[in-house]
Automatic annotation (TrEMBL):
Stated name of the protein: Autoinducer 2 import system permease protein LsrD
Keywords recorded for this protein, A-Z: Cell inner membrane, Cell membrane, Membrane, Transmembrane, Transmembrane helix, Transport
Species of the source: Conexibacter stalactiti
Organism taxonomic ancestry: Bacteria, Bacillati, Actinomycetota, Thermoleophilia, Solirubrobacterales
Pfam families noted in UniProt: BPD_transp_2 (PF02653)
The keyword Thylakoid is assigned to this record: no
InterPro entries: ABC_transp_permease
Length: 337
């Protein structure tokens, strides 16, 4: 039986049935309970202004985490997404072009940056090493374009980015749409089924004559694209460019993907699971901010959430692959352990 047929039958995203969303049910339940408790115990949390702020906060992480989830599904990783987000913000703030031109430039840079990562990975460079290198490159370019936070975002770009319907930001709605598109692509296309086959067993996928190189190139290109779009969503929060503002999102996007049930060894998980995972992370930051807790505690809280969630998955008999990775290192391209 071919790897494509196997992935169609066994992949959690092989169909659009509810069975394909089982990995996300646990974190969804936790997120819903957390929101209900927060709404009961915290009056400031229930305010429309805070809800709007929370949704603005979620939008960039939703986009970058969705792209990261696609890469992790291939048994890879993209450490460059935070620097790509920073680069996108400075390109938006340092350009005097129209909104359409700025968006086109940011999209092109994101795609090319992601494609560069993909080319390195399919050429045999370890994903960790490749994206670590491009992380430094993107950060350096961002600093060259804008050495410090500032710049002026074109008004015809900032206006749509900050548009709010009721108390729901447009960027949040677009981010949800982006996640849905990636989920459909991974669930209902031949590329998506090849994605899970490559992540599950790349050597077997090659023997089955699946388009491994093309699948990986598209995955990393999408990660770069969604990181760049996340940078534009971040502009809606900071109203300027910042060459360092995206730095925390590399870790946050990986955290969101993992607590959403994406297997770090590849081949399992649901892109939709990043939605409740991002909600839980954003909720943690929001509540700590409302409580006046020092911001450094947010990193500690996210680490605790990651450890507890992965421990719960393991206890439930659904290991995420972290133990395998720790024993054998990041799986080499070609299926070797």
């Amino acid at each position: 039986m071919s790897a494509l047929a196997t992935s169609r039958r066994s992949s959690p995203l092989g169909t659009t049935t509810l069975a394909g969303l089982k990995p996300a049910l646990f974190i969804t339940l936790v997120s819903i309970v957390a929101v209900v408790i927060a709404a009961i115990v915290s009056e400031p949390f229930r305010s429309p202004t805070n809800v709007e702020s929370l949704l603005f906060q979620m939008a960039p992480l939703l986009l970058v985490a969705a792209g990261q989830a696609i890469v992790i599904t291939t048994a890879g990783i993209d450490l460059s997404v935070g620097s790509m987000m920073s680069l996108a913000t400075v390109l938006a703030a340092a350009s005097s072009s129209s909104a359409g031109a700025v968006v086109a430039i940011v999209v092109a840079v994101g795609l090319l940056g992601g494609l560069g990562n993909g080319i390195g990975v399919v050429s045999g460079v370890n994903p960790l090493v490749m994206t670590l290198g491009t992380m430094a490159i993107f950060r350096g370019v961002a600093l060259l374009v804008l050495g410090q936070p500032g710049g002026v975002v074109p008004a015809d770009l900032l206006t749509p980015l900050t548009t709010v319907f009721g108390h729901v930001p447009l960027t949040f709605l677009l981010a949800l749409g982006g996640v849905a598109i990636l989920w459909l692509a991974s669930a209902e296309t031949r590329w998506g089924r090849a994605l899970f086959a490559v992540g599950g067993d790349e050597a077997h996928a090659r023997r089955a004559r699946l388009p491994v190189r093309r699948t990986l190139l598209i995955a990393y290109s999408l990660s770069g694209l969604f990181a760049a779009l996340a940078g534009l969503a971040l502009v809606a929060r900071i109203y300027s460019g910042d060459p360092n503002v995206g730095d925390p999102f590399a870790l946050d996007s990986i955290t969101a993907a993992l607590i959403g049930g994406i297997a770090v060894t590849g081949g399992r998980g649901s892109v939709l699971a990043v939605i409740p995972a991002v909600l839980l992370l954003a909720l943690t930051d929001n509540l700590l901010n409302l409580a006046g807790v020092f911001s450094y505690w947010q990193y500690i809280a996210k680490g605790v959430i990651l450890i507890l969630t992965l421990a719960a998955y393991h206890a439930a008999g659904r290991p995420t692959g972290l133990l395998t990775m720790a024993r054998g290192g990041w799986r080499k391209r070609g299926g070797a352990a």
